Amino acid sequence: MKHMNSEVKEERTSNKKRIDLFLVPIVLIAAFLNLFKIWTDEYANAYYTAAVKSMLQNFHNFFYASFDPGGYVTIDKPPVVFWIQTISAKIFGFHGWSVILPQALAGIGSVLLLYVLVKRTFGVWAGRFAALAMALTPIVPAVSRTNNIDSMLVFTLLVATWMLFRAVRTAKFGWVLAAFAMIGVAFNMKMLQAYMVLPAFYVFYVVATKITWKKKIAFLTTATALMLAVSVSWAVVVDSTSADKRPYMGSSQTNSVLELAFGYNGINRLTGNTSVTGSSHKQPAQTEQQTASSETKQNSNSSADSSQSSNQRKSSSSQKMQAPGGGNQNGMFNTGNPGPFRLFQKGLSDQISWLLPFVIFSIVGLFVGVKFKGPYTTKQKESLFWLAWLLPVAVFFSIAGFFHQYYLIMLAPPIAAFAGAGAVALWSMYKQHNGWKSWLLPGGILTTAALQVYIMSPYVSSIGVAPIAGVGALGVILALVLAVRKQRKNSLTNYLGAAVMVVLLAMPAYWAMTPIIYGGNSMLPSAGPDSSSGMGGPPSTATNSKQSGFNGMQPPGSSSSNSSSNNQMQPPSGSSNSGQMPGGSSNNGQMQPSSGSSNSGQMQMPGGSSNNSQMPNSFSSTSSSLKRKSGGMNAEVNQKLLNYLTKNNTGEKYLFATTDSTSAAPYIIKTGKPVMAMGGFSGSDPILTVSKLKAMIKKGEVKYFYLSGMGKGGQSDVITWIKENSKEIPSSKWQSTSSSAQQGPSGNGTLYEITLK
What we know:
- The chain has helices at about 1-15, 25-35, 45-55, 60-65, 80-90, 95-120, 125-135, 140-145, 150-170, 175-190, 200-210, 215-240, 255-270, 290-295, 305-315, 350, 355-365, 380-400, 410-430, 440-455, 460-465, 465-485, 490-515, 640-645, 660-670, 690-700, 715-725; strands spanning about 275, 285, 320, 570, 655-660, 675, 705, 725-730, 750-755.
- The chain has about 750 residues and is an all-alpha fold.
């Protein structure tokens, strides 16, 4: 152990004088996984990209993170990340890649930060392994290749961690304040999700600092107060501003940032409660749980043959999806069924859990011999920090009622840190023959290989049997060889250590590359051979998933020859409401459309067709040479509709109004003109009333309305009034009749015109 410690000290001294050459390829791998081909994603997450387009136009939109150029409604998240994206778009021009770039760089930065954090205490090889594990954790590049917030959030929290570690080393209170203030900045990225690391910060500072309890309490209280002040600073400014002088706070029900933070983006994620009060009476809202299914949509130009085979697949009973907790399926959007082993279930395990068994063995090795009352070594203190990050976050994802797969990036730093630190610790115990502790390394390899075989087994049709059998066989062989050679010392043993890391990281590396190989989904990013579907889980039976799209969906004003299918969503087993979801009615356990829709047994999408919207399980292929216009919304605008609206605009502020952001986003991106999403992101926000709409029409702010399906949330009265007091525009004037039109989620709708004197 003394010899190993001297080696670590020598490596630290050496690496202060020169660049770590082993780190260079790790950073290059991270750069490749995060940056390669991001320029092919033209629209990225269209909901957020539209906001950047709006924020570029004036400071008012920039400060409030307005979804539309008219400042009608904001997006559903705080503005900090979108401020950064807007600055990037200002510098490099407005492109899909320019709004993705900050997140991609944040993903690379997280790899470097983890190297720095782990190396200082656990040694250079631990830092290298941790950085490589972070780079190859599949969900990390999958999220970083999009304009979603989470990779920037994790980077910010790692910066806060670096500040906290520095505060303990230097015993300077200023660094403590900086660390907690940085968490406050992270709160203004994704609200309460930033606070998931607080247990680690509190525990580590209490254990690691050598000051009196009185000072500890005083310092932490002051730092927490600063964190809270930074956290609510933007919210206080917004909520104290008169509602008529700012956009409506999107996805809130009371036009309040704080309500958004603690409701929609807070407690509701844990409880899964999506019922909100939409207007004067309570209605179920089509919130993110419902609308996220429409976010997975990508555009496709499918042939008649592919459409026919797709419909055949949809009708297969084996392709039916179930809502959370239903039967033996994997929950809504493949987030598994709540329980202690949720992170090992399909849909989540292949995103984050590849190294979890090895991490468990590493935790045992790192904490062996630790006494509750201390004293603790620096390694044990920092191990406690990563454990206090890992456990609460893992518990949350094990019991949470609603989240998406890409939220799991929050688990990547502690898992990678334990993988790196544990690899060195277990290897040292193995080489020094420390009794039962020397068996931790072979045990960790064997159980990790077994889990990886389990994770890959549902994908045998896509990746083949060979890699699955190879990982299993090599894991068993390496564990056996290490067990046999425990009493021998020669150079071959060192090569076994390298072989161990290759075997453990080979398949995570492949999974991390799948968004590049198969194409990704910018709305609901995930990794795996089906990464372009955004739905996770085992791959579909489609013949080509590289550019997956959905049948039965088209942009406003385009017609499609695709027929509807019998694809249905199954309710949870034993559900008392027979599978009813927010916004739907019950009918023999099938997902139902919004009230009044004629689409029997099918789920109504936001802005979706009343007769063709479906929850697809199969995908139609398109040419892989086409530039991806993903984002899950109408990444293609209907040019004929746009021409009609532009030609007939007589000075109105809004080009047109529609129910939700799904139909509005691509037109904002394309034109930079205001388009009103009357009900916000999902169409359920109680923003508009009939009297307010009348006033807007009389002022000449809007006269065209594109409606598809029925009203959502608190909009039903508004939609009814529009239909009763408007003139329907003949479809021949604005509707595209091309059967090869790009497809998106809005479907066949109706264009109305209203003029009031």
